[in-house]
Write a structure and sequence with these properties.
The structure holds two protein chains of two kinds. Helix content of chain A is about 35%, strand content about 30%. Chain A is α/β, with parallel strands linked by helices. Chain A has a six-stranded mixed sheet, with helices on both faces. The longest helix of chain B has 29 residues, at about 50-75. In chain B, about 40% of the residues are buried. The chains are: A alpha/beta, B mainly alpha. Chains A and B meet through helix 2 and helix 3 of A and helix 1 and helix 4 of B.
Chain lengths: ~300, ~240
Amino acid sequence: MIKVEHLTKHYGHVKAVDDISFHVRDGEILGFLGPNGAGKSTTLRIMTSYLTPTSGNIFINDLNVLDDSLDIRKIIGYLPENNPLYPEMIVYDFLKFSAAARRIEGKAFEERLKKVSDLCGLHGVIHKKISELSKGYKQRTGLAQAIFHDPEILILDEPTTGLDPNQIVEIRNLIKQLGKEKTVVISSHILQEIQATADRMVIINKGKIAADGTIDELMSGFKGFTRLHLEIEGADHVKDLTGIHEKMKLADIHTSNGITKVVIEYPNTLDLRKDVFQYVVKKGWTLLEMNRHRTSLEDMFRILTVEEGGEA
Amino acid sequence: MNTVRLIYRKEMSAYFNSAVAYITLIIFLLINGWFFTSSFFLIGQSDLRILFNSIPLVFIFFIPAITMGSLARENHAGTMEFLTTLPVDDYQIVLGKFFSAVALIGVGLLFTLPHFITLLFVGTGPDIGAILCGYVGLLLVGAMYASIGMFGSAVSNNQITSFLLSFIIIFALYLFDKILIFVPTFLSGILQFLSTDYHFSNISRGVIDSRNIIYFLSVIFFFLTLSVRVLEIRKWR
């Protein structure tokens, strides 16, 4: 169980993380979602003892990052953002070094090495220099380092950045597989990333928590709306369309070559397509196209992280 | 201690897997060799005084060049984040890296032994005890400079900045007892005591005085502690 409590971190005058609290339950994959610069990496860096909080604390089991940093580092596997590695080292030596730092040596090392190379698909590159590896293999090497000591808790900061679509799928599958036994915190600025891997998500924006819950919970709590795209020929005073229902709003309108393109919005709880069609028929216009878009998780993320933040 | 050895080994292999160690060692040996052979036969004395004068001088460049990357490169490349999130204490990182720099300095000193052997062949009754003492002194000077180098390297992400900062501190300490005639008398005692050469010259004559040893050890301790503090402060930023 990871408990983040009233965590605040300032860089000079900049508040990177501003009094956030959330929990990660044992055995779950938590997606930590937010736009760039929201404070994700800072939070994870405090969790892994790379940074010290300005105030607040993080509790892991009965340890906390202020007093038990060394013990916490023993039970955590961490893949930092941008996956820093020693380019001149050989993959084998790198893993041997990080394993030795965690007191895994000799026979235990060789056994783990075999398991981890199987899991991360490292067999072909184990004796190569890290600088010679492709980005995907570098990422696997970083991940291998993070899971080598079979940690209780795995913290992955943007693990799929810069990978190609196939590699992304591979890494996601690997994370899901690891998540069956471990507590995983995975950060990303891409919603699909979190949707594909996480059980629950915490959305952070400008150093504050914007939402926290499972994907279903977040969707049901979110008052979404429908966008209706219309193309009408021979229309005049299209704006009057909004008179159909009081909750209907005009989002966009423009006319060219006698064809008017209109976008109207209304709450998801209503379905006004029939009314719109009948209105158009009554007016004698020709309806060329009608298209319904419902707001998705994607829109919710955008709204939570952009509009509420005041940066529309 | 195991962890310190682990870091030490990693640093040693990093030194010898790149050109840094070889190039700096070759330059170090060339300059000292030139100093030594160009005047050894002219002076005609059976000691290594020339070498013991030139090495501390060459150290002023040689050692910051060895240590400049040690922490600065990790800071720059971001590998510091990997290293400091392992269950490893900051002091273990600093010590491991410090010892590897000292070992490289030791290797450099080892390669000056041919000069000593030359002396054994051509000299008349050299004072071997004094010479061994001199080597111990050189290693202490080297270790002290390396600790300053660690500090310079901890402060910056940039290797050139690290080099210059360490160089300035080391050079100042070297210069102190050369400028005594220019400073007021009440300062000259302090400056002389702070100066590296003052303590080294005693040892290189074959006199091992605990005051000199304590000087070197306390400067080493001071700068290594400072380096560890700098690493800690980076977490607070």
